[in-house]
Amino acid sequence: MREALFIKKNKDRWEQFSSQPSADTDEMASEFIQLTDDLGYSKTFYPHSKVTRFLNAEAARRYLSIYRNRKEEANRFVRFFKYDLPLTVAKHHYVLLVCFVLFMLFFFVGFYSSKTDERFVRDMMGDGYVNMTEKNIEDGNPFGVYQGGNSTLMWLGIMINNCGVSFKYYAEGILAGIPTLYSMIKEAVRLGAFEYMFYNKGYGSLFFLTVMLHGTLELSAIIIAAAAGVVLGKSWLFPGTLKRLEALKLGAKEGVKIIIGLVPVFVVAAFVEGFITRYYRMPVWLSLPILLLSLFFIIGYFVVYPRNLSKKLRTA
Fold first, then answer.
1. Alpha-carbon distance values, 40 to 55, 57, 246, 258 (Å)
2. Model confidence, pTM
3. Is 63 a residue whose pLDDT tops 70?
4. Would you kindly state where each structural domain of the chain is located, as residue ranges?
5. Which of 98, 90, 75 has its CA nearest to residue 28?
6. How far apart are CA 171 and CA 303, in angstroms?
């Protein structure tokens, strides 16, 4: 876009922001995001222009207006989860979609492979785990694996492990995202084999109600973490109009935002697995609302809200 057209298209909005700044915190944050987006575009295509200096000054003034009081850290925290993370997710929704499709595809690959090859489950899960599970099934306690150990220690251990896995997925993304996708696909195949192990024994529906109590949050977060790794990998692989190093810095920053935003999800998922999944024999009217609430949160916060927020800011 030529500079004159860029100015003409946005001039009225900038003048309104400058002469009539909003006093509402949410609107002020929205204006700041729009200004920083315009500033980023201007720095890329008109780095030495007067309009770039103007936007930089306006963004700085808005920043000071938002963060001038003692609640700066709290405001940053709220702003991160209310604006920064959802907008970053919205920007890379197609990457999330690709990762989700691949995960589901290879989940069914794992399930079907287990159905056609008796050794496949053992190859994927290990003889020790399969033997333990079969013994639990014989004892009438198919998901006894979730009842072992102290709930608090289990919660902390699972949480640390899942956060570590998510950071691993992100770090692997530097190699064009290929190791990240491989790790995610391998996990999907393992889950498919895991599900078939119970389905083959007549516990398919109980598997869903039990594992997905915590798995709805946990597996969704794993897929999103894989997407963060792909975002990192494709940033330098396909830099677009940016210099490759600048694109890598941007991709790394956006990937980190996504990973950090997943930490609370892993905390809650691990809590459910440690304290609630062990009571998998609970009535359906108790377990199903937990599962549905988790599903609605994932769809609402990582799909619907980012799209609506992004659309709202584009049309503002």
1. 9, 13, 12, 20
2. 0.77
3. no
4. 3-68, 90-305
5. 75
6. 24
Cα–Cα distance, 291 to 31 (Å, whole number) = 37
Place of tokens 């640390």: 160
As given in the structure block, the two tokens for residue 305 are: 């809200």
pLDDT tens for residues 138-185?
999 999 989 888 899 999 999 999 999 999 999 999 999 999 999 999
State the Cα angle at 205 between 199 and 209, rounded to 5°. 125
Rounded Cα distance, 66 and 36, in Å: 14
Question: Is 275 in contact with 147 (CB distance < 8 Å)?
Answer: no
Residue 278 amino acid letter: R
